[in-house]
Amino acid sequence: RKRVVVFISGGGSNMVALADACAAPDFPAEIVAVISDKPTAGGLAKAAERGIATHVFERRAYGSKGEHEAAILAALAALSPDIICLAGYMRLLSADFIRPYEGRILNIHPSLLPLFPGLHTHQRALDAGMMVAGCTVHFVTEGMDEGPIVAQSVVPVLPGDTSDSLAARVLTVEHRSYAQALRLFADGTLRMGADGRVARTGFAGDAAAS
Ligand code: GAR
C-alpha cells in the first residue's frame, strides 16, 4: 500500500473521505500522517480519532516561507510518503518544496479548473452566472491550481444558491472524486506524464496496442 501524507488547514472533510476510502481492505493506499499549518484545524481531531498521527507546522513559528517549508520537508523525509494529498491546505507550495515530490502531489480544488483558480471560487461561479459547478483533482505543479487534471465532478447550480449552499453541494462530490483519484494514482492506473498531462496505463486497450 502506498504511503500517503495529507495536508490540511481546516475542517478536514476531504481528509476524512480519503481515510474512509483507505479503510477498505483492497484500497491501494494508507494515510500515515496528517500535517496542518493551523493548530486550530478541525481535521486534526478527526485524524487523531482515526488513529492517524498529526503534525502541526504553524507558519508564524518560522522566520520565512523557506524555513517553514524546510521544517515540513524534514518531517516528510522521516515519513517517506509515496504520495502527498493536499486537502484544503491553504498555502502555495514553492518549486523547491514540490521538486522532490514532483508528480506525486495531488490537490483538490473546488471549481472546474481552469475556471476559477484561487479563492472565493463559489461566489465567482455564481457571479459569472454558471449553471454548473464542481471540483477538480489535479497534480500539483508550481503554478497555482495549474497542474494536469486527474478527475472532475460536476453539480448543478440551483436557483437561490448562495456561496455556502453551492460549496456544500460541491463538497459532497469532492469526497468521492478525491477518493477515486487517489485510488487510480496509487494503483498505477494514471500518473503525471513528462508532457505535463495525465498518462493513463493499465487499460486493456493499451496492452492490445503495444
Ligand atoms: C474544500 O472545498 C477544498 O476543495 C478547498 O477547501 C475545502 C476544504 O474542506 N480547497 C481549496 O480551496 C484549495 N485552494 P475540508 O477541509 O473539509 O476538506
TrEMBL record:
MF annotations from Gene Ontology: phosphoribosylglycinamide formyltransferase activity
GO cellular component: cytosol
Originating organism: Ciceribacter selenitireducens ATCC BAA-1503
Alphabetized UniProt keyword annotations: Purine biosynthesis, Transferase
Residue numbers marked as site, Raises pKa of active site His: D145
Residues the entry annotates as binding (6R)-10-formyltetrahydrofolate: K65, M90, R91, L92, L93, N107
CDD domains, alphabetized: FMT_core_GART
Family per similarity comment: Belongs to the GART family.
Lineage: superkingdom: Bacteria
Lineage of producing organism: Bacteria, Pseudomonadati, Pseudomonadota, Alphaproteobacteria, Hyphomicrobiales
Catalysed transformations (reactions): N(1)-(5-phospho-beta-D-ribosyl)glycinamide + (6R)-10-formyltetrahydrofolate = N(2)-formyl-N(1)-(5-phospho-beta-D-ribosyl)glycinamide + (6S)-5,6,7,8-tetrahydrofolate + H(+)
Pathway recorded for this protein: Purine metabolism; IMP biosynthesis via de novo pathway; N(2)-formyl-N(1)-(5-phospho-D-ribosyl)glycinamide from N(1)-(5-phospho-D-ribosyl)glycinamide (10-formyl THF route): step 1/1
Protein name as catalogued: Phosphoribosylglycinamide formyltransferase
Annotated Formyl transferase N-terminal domain residues: 2-182
